[in-house]
Amino acid sequence: MNLENICNRVVEIAKETGRFVKETRDQGGLSVEVKGLNDFVTRVDKLSQDRIVSAIENLVPGAGFILEEDSIEERAKKYNWIVDPIDGTTNFIHGAPPYAISIALVRNDEPIVGVVYEIVMDEVFYAWKGGGTWLNGKKVTVSGKEKVADSLIATGFPYSDFSYIDPFMDTMDFFMKHSHGVRRLGSAATDLAYVSCGRYDAFYEYGLHPWDVAAGVILIREAGGKVSDFKGGDDFLFGGKIVAANGNIFDEMQKIIYGIMEKGINN
Ligand code: IPD
Fold first, then answer.
1. Which of 123, 140, 157 is a domain's end point?
2. 89 lines ligand 1 (CB under 6 A)
3. Structural domain containing residue 230
4. How far is the CA of 173 from the centre of ligand 1 (A)?
5. Beta-bridge partners for 241
6. In angstroms, rounded to a whole number, what is the distance separating the alpha carbons of residues 203 and 43?
7. Do 136 and 42 share a domain, yes or no?
8. Per residue in 91-139, pLDDT tens?
9. CA 90 to chain CA centroid, nearest Å
C-alpha cells in the first residue's frame, strides 16, 4: 500500500469537497438541525460527508468507516476511514473561521494518513506514516519551545458535557497565569494542525470524538510532536481526552493536565 499516493488523493478530495462546502455556504440555505445540546448538523455536513465517502471508498479495499454524521457505523477490523465532514460546525453556521474537513485512515486504530483542510484560509495539512507533515506543499514541524511558560496553548471549551467543568476551569486559570496565553478556535482538527506546524505549542480538550482528532494525531506525530490521553496513555482516539504538544514540553504539559483534570475527575 502506497501511503503517499493515498494521502495525495485524499488531499485532492478534501480540497474539492472544501470548495463545494464554501460555495454552498455562500449560496445560503444551511438547514441547521439540532443533534443535542449545542450540537448541530447542517445539510452541508451531510452532503460533504456523502461526497467524501463516495470518493474514498475504493482507495483501500475492505476499509470501514467511522463517520461523524452517521447513525450506522461500518467499522472494519484492520483499516478504517475516520471522517469529520465539517469540524467546527458551530463556526460554520455563524460564518466564523476556522472550519475544516478532517479525514484519517487508521490501521488497527493507529492513524497512518491524515488530512485536515481548513476551508477559510485554504490551508491543507497532511501527513502519512513515515512521510513527515506538510502544509500546502511545504514540510512543517512542531515548535521548539522548551517550557510551558513560553508556550501558546490551545483548548476547546466544554459545550454539552459539563461534568469536568470545575477542573477544566482550573486548567484555564493555570495556563492564563503560567503560559503565553490560551486560545480557543472552535475546531479541534484545526487546533491539532496548528500544533503540527508550530503556531501553537500544545492543545488539550475533553469530550472529543475520534473524527475530531484522528487526522490531527498523525499530523503531530509526523511533525515531531507527541499525543496521549490525560493519563499519558494511548486512549485518545476513542477515550475523548487528548493532550498534544511539541516533544520538548509534552511531559510537562501532560503532567499539568493530569494533575489538575484527573484530580478533579476522581473527586
Ligand atoms: C467540534 C469542534 C470543537 C470542539 C468540539 C468538537 P464539530 O467538532 O472540534 O472545536 O470543541 O468538542 O465536537 O462538532 O464541530 O465537528
1. 140
2. yes
3. 148-266
4. 22
5. 206
6. 30
7. yes
8. 999 999 999 999 999 999 999 999 999 999 999 999 999 999 999 999 9
9. 15
